[in-house]
């Protein structure tokens, strides 16, 4: 105690306890990387004060807007599994690795993006490019809309997952499910190729336009 000049175990009985000043709480690395036009919202509070978060647009976002790369730790084993998030893997140096995010200081904001339960609510597509995973918008995103992602067709094959959505929410799993045949595929009128989504067909048709 600086007032009575004594070294005490515990608080001073004469002058009382010290006034404790707390450090400022610093957001995690993942939260600090969130773009200014996106925001996190708490969707559910589970046991142990566990927050289920979603990423929402604060303003309109154009179609074909790319986010990434996804930041995570390369691991041969997935240590952090969340049924509401996509399982992501990359091919590096001939090996297949998980992008693991055991905590918010090991990743960026993309770890908070939840998987889409059906094609109607999908706003992002996940794909691999040069050993990194990126998310790109597949349609314009209106303000206050949640960003939700699913695998691109080629990346779905790499992940041994389905590139086509199943309508029932209970049937959708972020773990690689059994691949299913495409339902009502989109057909290119120029060459007859089929695609699982309109976004993939539209991207393919750009090749024909470039050749013309």
UniProtKB/TrEMBL annotation:
Write the record's keywords in alphabetical order, separated by commas. Answer: Metal-binding, Transcription, Transcription regulation, Zinc, Zinc-finger
What region holds the C2H2-type domain?
186-212
Q: Which residues form the SET domain?
A: 38-152
Q: GO molecular function terms here?
A: zinc ion binding
Q: Which GO terms describe its cellular component?
A: nucleus
Carries keyword Transmembrane? no
Gene3D superfamilies associated with the record: SET domain
Look up the domain of life of the source: Eukaryota
Specify whether Transmembrane helix is a keyword of the entry: no
Give GO BP annotations, semicolon-separated: regulation of gene expression
What InterPro entries is this protein classified in? SET_dom, SET_dom_sf, Zinc_finger, Znf_C2H2_type
**Entry-linked PANTHER family:** PLAG1 LIKE ZINC FINGER 1 (PTHR16515:SF23), PR DOMAIN ZINC FINGER PROTEIN (PTHR16515)
Give the protein name, as stated in the record.
PRD15 protein
- What is the organism of origin for this protein? Oreocharis arfaki (tit berrypecker)
User: Gene symbol?
Assistant: Prdm15_0
């Amino acid at each position: 105690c600086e007032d009575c000049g004594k070294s005490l175990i515990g608080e001073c009985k004469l002058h009382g306890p010290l006034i404790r000043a707390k450090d400022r709480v610093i957001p995690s690395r993942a939260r600090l990387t969130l773009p200014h036009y996106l925001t996190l919202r708490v969707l559910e509070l589970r046991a142990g004060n566990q927050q289920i978060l979603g990423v929402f647009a604060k303003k309109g976002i154009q179609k074909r807007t790319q986010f990434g790369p996804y930041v995570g730790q390369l691991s041969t084993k997935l240590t952090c599994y969340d049924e509401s998030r996509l399982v992501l893997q990359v091919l590096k140096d001939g090996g297949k690795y998980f992008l693991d995010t055991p905590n918010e200081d090991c990743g960026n904001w993309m770890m908070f993006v939840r998987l889409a339960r059906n094609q109607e609510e999908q706003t992002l597509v996940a794909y691999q490019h040069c050993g990194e995973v990126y998310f790109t918008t597949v349609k314009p995103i209106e303000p206050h809309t949640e960003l939700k992602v699913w695998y691109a067709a080629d990346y779905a094959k790499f992940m041994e997952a389905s590139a086509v959505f199943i309508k029932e929410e209970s049937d959708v799993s972020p773990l690689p499910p059994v691949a299913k045949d495409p339902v009502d595929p989109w057909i290119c009128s120029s060459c007859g190729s089929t695609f699982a989504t309109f976004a993939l067909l539209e991207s393919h048709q750009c090749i024909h336009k470039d050749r013309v």
